[in-house]
Each structure stands twice: as structure tokens, then as C-alpha cells.
Amino acid sequence: MAKEKLCSLIEKDKERLQKQMLFRQLQRKYNKLLKEQVLQDELLDLLKNEIRALPATRIPKKKRVDRDVTKEECLLLLGDIHIGEVVSLEEMGGFGKYGIDVFVSRMEYLFEKIVDLAEKKLQGYNFQKLNVVGLGDMVSGIIHEELVETAEGTVIEWTLGGALVTAQFLMDLSRHFPKVEFTGVVGNHGRMNKKPRFKHRYVNWDYLYYQTISLMCANQKNIIFDLPKCFFRFKEIAGQNYLILHGDNINMYRSIPWYGISRSVDELQQLLSGQGKIFQNVLLGHFHNGATLNKVVGEIILNGSMIGGNEFSLGRMFRSSDPMQLLLGVNSKYGVTWRFPINLKNAQVKDTPRYKFQATNLAEEVQIMNDVK
């Protein structure tokens, strides 16, 4: 009898100890997540106090709409930039290279091509607005050790310096379009934890990058920003409804998972329809390949990447794609009427680049705060 009581007490003690250990483990995880969120909030406060907006530039007048001119909106998909990652030309066997200087040159080239297409190649159109959609993975991030080890600088420098380049890019575009609207969702590379989490997904270097751009463009009245904390965004563009998301929560093996994409889109379509939100088109990043999947109504559009192929895609999947971003035309009646995949591989690194990549001394102050945390 005494033995049975002793065994019962031991079992109760084991159960209590297990609960205590579980509680401590959950408390540590909670505290870590809380610190990360507090860190991001403090970083945002610091940026708001220290970031100086770029000088305003001229805003173009709205063009008179002639009968023979088609009125549409431009839509630029901008994503998978991976600012900070270094891709070695030698390790790639000549299939591509990447670094800060290449990123800057490709942003300059992208601006030149957009203006050339909108003002010279498409003269029969009147574009009153340019929609720029940030599809995530804008910075290389810190979740992959080999990327951190081989990168240029720190994640703070990538975030602030990359934001400055992108702000200059948007300011340039704002001189050619009467209205520029930027919408940005976060990707997976910018996570502050190695393991994916579903709470506070916006606690992400991409989100800080977007917020920094908005601060730098604050003086330019024809640039507006829409920066959701949700991982997706329901958006109306030229009278057409779009669903915008990065796509990392869609399972992928080796290539584009068409079944997984279609199933995920159907689930979101049902979910959002309960709120009266019906979308025709979907904009995705993550897969580093431009492609289109037609639906009964509308289509699913995948953007390419700015980085192109890297050592992972070549060594793991025996694949290397050209760096590409997609420019589209959207009509209020017909939806997407034209598309130009802008191949960036021919962008040349200049001795004196148009855009400055500069993290400033603020990066040092933020780094000290990050180390303390």
C-alpha cells in the first residue's frame, strides 16, 4: 500500500514538473517574441525621429484624355530583391552574380525601362497612376547562416541602404506618373526567427524596409503607401480586385506548385467572399519565376526575382533564372491587357551610380540597440 502511495506521489511530482518545464519553455518563447516586437517598435520610433525625407520633386500634370487614347493604370511587381545577398559568378559557373552594386544598377535599369515603355513604346495610352506592389523578400535576412556569412554588411545596412535606393527609385517614377501608390507585404527571408510563425508576421525586416521608404518619401505628395500587417492584401487596382501575397506559406518542391497555389487561392477566395471581397486576380512572389495560371475569371500572376539564380537554386535544383520584374497594364473593363517582363541581366554597374546606397550613421545606432536586446 505504501509503495502504491509512493508511486502515486512520484507520478504527481513528475506531472507537476513537466507542467512547470512546459510553462518555462512557453514563457521563454513568449518573452523572446515580445522582445522582438518591442525591438521593431523601438526601431520604428527611432526611424521616425531620425530619418530625413528626400526633397520633393515636381509632380507631372494629368494629361488630357483624348478619345483615341486608352486610359489604364500601370502595375509594377517588385519583389524577391534579396538586398545584401552575394552571389559569386565563379561559384555559379558564370550563370549570374549579385551584390549591392548589382542591385543598385538593376533598380536604375528598371526605372529607365518603365519610363521608356510607358512614354515611348505605349504612346496610345494615358497612364494616370502607377501601382507598385512589393511582394516581399526585399532583404536577404538573417534566417539562413550561409547567407549571413557571405553577405555584404549587416541586415540593418541592407534595410536602410536598400530603402534609400528604393525611395530614390519611387521619387524618380513620381516625376513621370501623376500618382504612385506603393503596397507592400512581407516575405519569409525578412523573418526575425528561423522557424516560421503565424503571430506577428509583420515583425519582419521587410516591414521596416517599407516603413523606412515611406518616411523617406514623406515630402512627395503624389506617392502614397499601403503597408498592411497582415501577410496578404485585398486591393482594388483600376477597378479590378487583386489578392496580394508573398507565397511562402504555399508548399513548394523543385518547381512552381500549381496545385498548391490553386488550392490556397480557392481557400482564400472562399474566406474573403464571406466579407464580401471577391478578387479576380492574384499577385505572387517567392517562386523566382514569372508565370501565369488562368482561372475561370482572372488569373494568378507570378513575378520573377531581382536576384536571379543563386548557389542554392543551382546546387539544389540545377536551375538558374534571369533576374526579371513584371510591368503590367490594367484596364477597368478588361483587367490585365498587356504585360512586359523586364529582364535585368543586361543592367551595367556604373562607376557613378544614379542611386546612392547609404545606411548612414543611424545603422550604427540601431546595431547597438539590437546588440543590447
Draw up the topology in text:
Blueprint lengths: L1 H49 L19 E9 L21 H22 L3 E10 L10 H6 L4 H19 L5 E6 L20 H12 L6 E4 L5 E6 L2 E6 L12 H16 L7 E4 L6 E4 L4 E4 L8 H7 L6 E8 L3 E9 L18 H11 L1
Parallel strand pairs: 1-2, 2-3, 3-4, 6-7, 7-9
Antiparallel strand pairs: 1-10, 5-6, 8-9, 10-11
Helix pairs in contact: 1-5, 1-8, 2-4, 4-5
Describe the protein in words.
The chain has 373 residues and is of the alpha/beta class. The protein has one domain: 4-Layer Sandwich (Purple Acid Phosphatase, chain A, domain 2). Helices cover 38% and strands 19% of the residues. The longest helix is centred in the N-terminal third of the chain and has 49 residues, at 2-50. The protein is globular, with a radius of gyration of 23 Å. The model has no long low-confidence stretch (mean pLDDT 86).
What would you say about this model in short?
This protein is α/β, with parallel strands linked by helices. The chain has one domain: 4-Layer Sandwich (Purple Acid Phosphatase, chain A, domain 2).
List descriptors.
373 residues, alpha/beta, Purple Acid Phosphatase, chain A, domain 2, five-stranded mixed sheet, 8 helices, 11 strands, 38% helix, globular
Query: Beta-sheet strand percentage?
Result: 15-25%
Averaged pLDDT: 86
CATH superfamily: Metallo-dependent phosphatases
Major sheet strand order: 4-3-2-1-10-11
Shape: globular
| SSE series | HEHEHHEHEEEHEEEHEEH
CATH arch. level architecture? 4-Layer Sandwich
Q: What is the CATH C level class, in words?
A: Alpha Beta
Number of domains: 1
Could you please say which CATH topology applies here? Purple Acid Phosphatase, chain A, domain 2
Instruction: Tell me the helix content.
Output: 25-40%
Q: How many H/I helical runs?
A: 8
Rg over CA atoms: 23 Å
Q: Give the low-pLDDT segments.
A: none
Largest sheet: 6 strands, mixed
Helix/sheet category: alpha/beta
